[in-house]
Amino acid sequence: MAVSDLLGITAQGIDTLQRRNKRTDFQQLAKVIRNYNIAEIVVGLPLRLSGSESAQTEKVTAFADELHSRFALPVHLWDERLTSVQANRLMREADLSIEKRAASVDRMAAVLILQSFMDARAVRSAPSKQAPI
Hints:
- This protein is α+β, with helices and mostly antiparallel strands.
- Helix content is 53%, strand content 12%.
- Helix 3 packs across helix 4.
């Protein structure tokens, strides 16, 4: 998992949620939402490399709908293609051992997903740099 700074500029990784069962998972998520004062949620959307949906895409979409229902927060689905590959590459470049990379890849992927979402949002909301006519 990852959270943003208060201004929504940078993403920082936090502990990975170890899935157990739905009840426990949602209790842990509720604690994260309270502790970090979460105002909206970004969920990585697994798409095929072609961009088409899969059975996993449908499961994640249903999970996002349940998050929205349970916590009454906006939930955004964001393309997560190749984030794990990118996370592994970044950790290899940082010269982390295989053991440390394996333990950290999910956290780094979450950071990359959230950072990508926030960067895209900043670009969409930035004023046009064109001169007025």
